[in-house]
Design brief:
By secondary structure, the chain is mainly beta. Helices cover 0% and strands 53% of the residues. The chain folds into two domains: 23-340, YVTN repeat-like/Quinoprotein amine dehydrogenase (Methylamine Dehydrogenase, Chain H), CATH 2.130.10; 349-424, Immunoglobulin-like.
């Protein structure tokens, strides 16, 4: 695996007005890219297929590592540990081992749309091209089918995991005049209920988490105006729907009371307090997909005209461009692989730190050159999940309550800091 690479501050080769500051030393080491190729009209010779690529941010090297012999790219995700990638393309789901980019498995799923991971499960939504079983659950280790949620009533789109609950947008087929929101208990993989919404939710698509609310991005292909729905997680009800005098698609995130989404084909923001569209366009480029880098508050986006070029670009939240890579044509999906760098721990000497066992289930033994100081355990998003004081260099840490995933243990005093990656099983 690609671990502990020294990431170049500011990203190689580009003049930047600000420095990319990465909290806790967490950086994007690699970007996994799904590329749909040149857009071709049917009937066509169809010689340009979906490709999978790896962009190593430190070296700026882009490598195509596989071809999926279908015509359209849907989405790509990675697991929390950055060990595996899952690509949805046309009617195919392909799993890759990122240590050598080899295929682990490939299966056919008609109408596959979006994916999400919960524990050992890979949850898949299905839309156009599928006529039943619109949510399915697979084993994320080998893509064996675990469960079919046949009770989800129509074509599904996005899936959002919040704790032990999954929320699925159900726009239905192209003739549907209203949308639905399916709510799934992920501990049992059973449908709890399906909220039938009114015509304002026609074309319900992206689901975005903001605090204790879920915002739904709703837009029918033939409608100019879009809407945003607000679902209250605590009460389990739709609070409101806001009508917008603009077409909105492809929601990215909610941050600092702003919804980042595509508005009339460009990236902009909408206030969650009054649902007013900002007059400032953040990114005035033809974006086909985007993802938030939570380690540095950067937006990684795909820019393409679907016929002559494709780029991966990195912007800050004000829309200022920070980096750009040429990666082919019709770049339609990105997944970020995080790692650890010493950048951001400048002016402090690096200490020794041993963590065992690693991976761990219940406890880890810490061996540190810091005999009296403090420790923090952060998740991959930079959130502190454990912290305390250590009065000796060797101590034991209880990690049994942490969810499975990748974490970073930092031990420091006034002059020394040391950080190591921990995999929690």
């Amino acid at each position: 695996m690609k671990l502990n690479k020294q990431f170049i501050a500011g990203l190689i080769g580009l003049a930047m007005s600000t420095t990319l500051a990465y909290g806790q030393g967490i950086v994007v080491e690699e970007v996994i890219i799904i590329n749909g190729g040149v857009f071709e009209y049917e009937p066509c010779t169809c010689i340009d297929y979906v490709t999978m690529s790896s962009l190593i941010t430190e070296t700026r090297e882009v490598t195509v590592f596989d071809t999926i012999y279908v015509q359209s790219a849907n989405s790509v995700i990675t697991d929390a540990m950055g060990e595996f990638a899952y690509a949805a393309a046309s009617d195919s789901l392909v799993m890759y081992d990122l240590s050598d980019y080899s295929r682990v498995n490939a299966i056919k799923i008609a109408g596959i749309q979006r994916m999400a991971i919960y524990g050992g499960n890979l949850i898949v939504t299905k839309g156009y091209g599928s006529f039943e079983d619109y949510v399915e659950v697979y084993d994320k280790r080998d893509l064996s089918l675990l469960k079919v949620l046949s009770t989800v009533s129509d074509e599904a789109k996005d899936i959002l995991v919040v704790g032990d609950t999954g929320y699925v947008s159900v726009p239905g087929n192209w003739m549907a005049t209203a949308g639905k929101l399916a709510i799934i208990d992920l501990t049992t993989m059973e449908l709890v209920r399906e909220e039938t919404l009114d015509t304002n939710y026609a074309g319900i698509g992206s689901l975005l988490l903001g605090g204790d609310k879920i915002y739904t991005i709703n837009s029918k292909a033939w409608n100019k105006d879009g809407t945003i729905g607000t679902f209250d997680i605590a009460s389990g009800t739709m609070d409101s729907v806001s009508l917008l005098d603009a077409k909105i698609t492809g929601g990215l995130m909610v941050k600092d009371d702003l919804i980042y989404t595509t508005i009339e084909g460009v990236l902009g923001t909408i206030s969650t307090t009054d649902m007013m569209i900002s007059t400032d366009v953040l990114i005035n480029k033809p974006l086909s997909g985007s993802v938030l880098d939570t380690s540095a508050n950067l937006i990684w986006a795909t820019e393409t005209d679907f016929s002559s070029y494709g780029k991966v670009v990195a912007f800050d939240l004000s829309g200022q461009g920070h980096a750009s890579w040429d990666v082919g044509i019709s770049v339609e999906g990105l997944a970020l692989v995080y790692g650890f760098s010493d950048v951001g721990i400048a002016d402090r000497s690096k200490g020794d730190l041993g963590v065992s066992p690693n991976p761990a289930r219940d406890h880890v033994n810490i061996r540190s050159s810091v005999s009296k100081g403090s420790y923090q355990v952060t998740d991959i998003l930079g959130k502190v999940v454990l912290s305390g004081q250590n009065n000796k260099s060797n101590f034991r840490l209880d990690v049994s309550e942490l969810k499975a995933g990748v974490y970073f243990i930092n031990v420091s005093d006034k002059s020394t800091t040391a950080t190591r990656r921990l995999i929690k099983q």
